[in-house]
Task: inverse folding
């Protein structure tokens, strides 16, 4: 079954292929080798709106880790070079309504 993963906050990074890691509060079913379609927005579409596909990605690795364990290097892989881990954790927590101690799914992927 094809799956759409939304990158509404990092659409530009996906289009430029500068993002190879994403963190999610879900998607625990993913396994290395799974193929996913990266889309601009998958939920909350208004009547008549369609999903806008960006590209297909292959899952390389998935692992549970505390959000606070993110490194500056991973922040760059998330598509935010020049930002630090503290900025990323604050931003992620605000957007996802969670705490810095939340266990999240770190998903690494490659472009097809």
Result:
């Amino acid at each position: 079954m094809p799956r759409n993963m939304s990158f509404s906050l990092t659409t530009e990074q996906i289009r430029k292929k500068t993002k190879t890691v994403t963190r999610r509060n879900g998607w625990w079913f993913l396994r290395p080798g799974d193929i996913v379609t990266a889309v601009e927005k998958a939920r909350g579409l208004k009547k008549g709106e369609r999903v806008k596909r960006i590209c297909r990605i292959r899952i390389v690795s998935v692992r549970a880790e505390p959000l606070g364990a993110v490194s500056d290097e991973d922040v760059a892989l998330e598509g935010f070079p020049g930002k630090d881990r503290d900025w990323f954790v604050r931003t992620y927590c605000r957007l996802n309504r969670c705490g810095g101690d939340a266990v999240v799914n770190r998903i690494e992927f490659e472009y097809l």
